[in-house]
Specification:
This protein has a single domain, classed as Thiol Ester Dehydrase, Chain A (Roll), CATH 3.10.129.10. It is globular and about 40 Å long. A hairpin with a 2-residue loop joins strand 2 and strand 3. Strands 1-2-3-5-6-7-4 form a seven-stranded antiparallel sheet, covered by helices on one side. The longest helix is centred in the middle third of the chain and has 19 residues. It contains three helices and seven strands; from the N terminus they run E-E-E-H-E-E-E-E-H-H. The chain is α+β, with helices and mostly antiparallel strands and 168 residues long.
Length: 168
């Protein structure tokens, strides 16, 4: 478990791949976190503001863990999906290699939440990303992710394109 309390500040994000501030595209239309065609998903819509990417969400009962509170896996999914928006801004295809989440306060269902993500560093294939979930001024959780860049074929292999599982 992490003992770090303050996340690092954002590193500069380029503008050439997304055109600067404003809405960003989803990862793909069926993405659980941000896909517009995913009716069972979180409905995150990414918006870039400077070097930070934000989205809002309000979690309903289907995301409940303890009574009235969000399941920790859903909180982690939000932070993972938010982290995945950073490689889009970098013009990179990448996947989560590691995600560490520090939970600091309960996530109450029905509250409007703000999720944020930003680049910590980009070196070779390694993209280090920080994310957090807030309820007003209260930090509910902080995520630290390592994403690795991958070739296009990672997402377009014949089994994946045909909708078949690649798991044994």
């Amino acid at each position: 478990m992490s003992t770090r309390t303050e996340p690092p500040p954002p590193a500069p994000l380029p503008v050439e791949h997304t055109g600067g501030d404003g809405p960003l595209r989803s990862h793909w239309s069926g993405c659980f976190g941000c896909g517009p065609d995913q009716q069972a998903g979180l409905g995150l819509a990414f918006v870039r503001s400077g070097d930070v990417i934000r989205a809002t969400t309000t979690l309903g009962l289907r995301f409940q863990g303890a009574p009235g509170l969000a399941h920790g896996g859903i909180v982690s999914a939000i932070l993972d999906d938010m982290s995945g928006a950073v490689p889009v801004v970098l013009g990179q295809r990448a996947v989560t290699a590691r995600l560490e989440v520090d939970f600091s306060a309960p996530v109450v269902l029905g509250h409007e939440l703000v999720a944020e993500s930003w680049l910590e560093s980009f070196d070779g294939r390694k993209i280090r990303i920080v994310s957090r979930l807030l309820d007003g001024d209260t930090v509910l959780a902080i995520g630290r992710a390592l994403f690795l860049t991958v070739p296009r074929e990672h997402f377009t292999g014949p089994d994946i394109a045909a909708g078949r599982s690649v798991a044994p």
